[in-house]
Design goal:
By secondary structure, the chain is of the alpha/beta class. The protein is about 40% helix and about 15% strand. The strands form four sheets. The chain has a seven-stranded mixed beta sheet with strand order 1-8-7-5-4-2-3, sandwiched between helices. The protein is globular and about 70 Å long. The two termini are about 10 Å apart. Bound molecules: pyridoxal-5'-phosphate.
């Protein structure tokens, strides 16, 4: 066994250093221009990110959470509407349903992918159901073609929470193609991350784009002409400039993530269950999530060996105190509940070296003996 190493779950410093010159000069440019709010830096990034996604519009905003809130509002979801989503996601997905006065309706996931179980969507639809938020958990999409069929059949708005899925595809199409609207987060640890909070709404729908653009900046048409009440949900120009410097590298970073995932797939011991990758999907491995019934003990062992791990997420939303009012209990969403006990996210990031992934694999093999 090799000497003890220290391996983070994600290495933001290594990522910065890999393109330090480009980032530093992007930041310098914004400061030299003292152009901090809206303007050219934000517009450039919006255009480049829309092009990258293969979509007509991208609206930069303050976070992935703000993007979800804007998407629901721009799509006309409001009071007493029901919105279907999954319980095994970050709370932001559900919070924004409440922000607009709508009701959360959870649907379980499939044990294999941990993504929404398409067979469970239709039974959950009622006359009040107005939208579905699918979550591209860990960087992989569910069967978007099937879900779009269901959404069309029941006249539901289809929203893609792509906070973890920049550059992911279903049948070659990125988020925003099947959905009426897709939302992204640029939280620093996400596959495309800025140096603080940031997000984007991506859509091919002109009406959603126009409403989103108004709402993101106080309902402004001109400086002091407000068409509607909106929000201060703007993306900072500094963040936009940083994102624009990083965007040209995203395809290469995604390729590296997938290469590291393949190395794990080929070399992890048979005792761990590997992440599932559907053949028509391009998984972008925001997280590489293994499963084992001995999860807690494995996690302790890896920590001792200097390998950082995470659990995404340890408590499904329907069992969170914040949602106690919904009256759910253990057993309501068995696949999501079972997953929380076995999942373990192990280090994956573009700059990871072969020596580091080898060490993670060795440490896991050592645990199983
Ligand atoms: C990160 C994340 C969000 C929220 O994004 P923020 O930028 O942190 O507001 C929403 N949904 C999912 C699935 C996420 O992973």
């Amino acid at each position: 066994m090799s000497e003890r190493m220290k391996i983070p779950l994600v290495d933001l410093k290594a990522n910065y250093l890999s393109i330090k010159g480009e980032i530093d000069s992007a930041i310098r440019g914004v400061i030299d221009d003292t152009a901090f709010i809206m303007g050219g830096y934000v517009e450039n990034f919006e255009r480049n990110f829309a092009n990258f996604c293969g979509a007509k519009h991208a609206i930069g905003c303050a976070s992935g959470t703000a993007a979800l809130h804007l998407a629901l509002l721009a799509a006309g979801i409001g009071r007493n509407d029901e919105v279907i989503t999954v319980p095994n996601t970050f709370i932001a997905t559900a919070e924004c349903i409440t922000y607009v006065g709508a009701k959360i309706k959870f649907v379980d996931v499939t044990p294999e992918t941990l993504l929404i179980d398409t067979d469970k969507i239709e039974p959950a639809v009622t006359p009040q159901t107005k939208a579905i938020i699918v979550v591209h958990l860990y960087g992989q999409t569910p069967d978007m073609e099937r879900i779009k069929e269901i959404a069309d059949e029941h006249d539901l708005v289809l929203i893609e929470d792509a906070a973890q899925a920049h550059a992911a595809t279903f049948k070659e199409h990125q988020p925003g193609y099947y959905g009426n609207v897709a939302t992204f987060s640029f939280f620093p640890a996400k596959n495309l991350g800025c140096f603080g909070d940031g997000g984007a709404v991506v859509t091919n729908d002109d009406d959603i784009a126009e409403k989103g653009r108004l709402l993101v900046n106080h309902g402004r048409k001109t400086k002091y002409e407000h068409i509607v009440e909106g929000f201060n949900y703007r993306l900072d120009a500094l963040q936009a400039a940083i994102l624009d410097a990083k965007l040209p590298h995203l395809n290469e970073w995604t390729r590296l993530r997938r290469e590291h995932a393949k190395f794990y797939n080929d070399n992890l011991p048979p005792e761990v269950r590997l992440p599932f990758e559907a053949s028509n999907c391009k998984h972008v491995y925001y997280m590489y999530v293994i499963r084992t019934e001995r999860r807690d003990a494995l996690m302790d062992h890896l920590k001792e060996r200097g390998v950082s791990c995470g659990i995404h997420y340890p408590i499904p939303l329907h069992l969170q105190p914040a949602y106690a009012y919904m009256g759910h209990g253990q057993g309501d969403f068995p696949a999501a509940e079972k997953a929380t006990k076995g999942i373990l996210s192990i280090p994956i990031y573009p700059e990871m070296t072969r020596e580091q992934s080898q060490y993670v694999i060795e440490s896991i093999k050592q645990f199983f003996g």
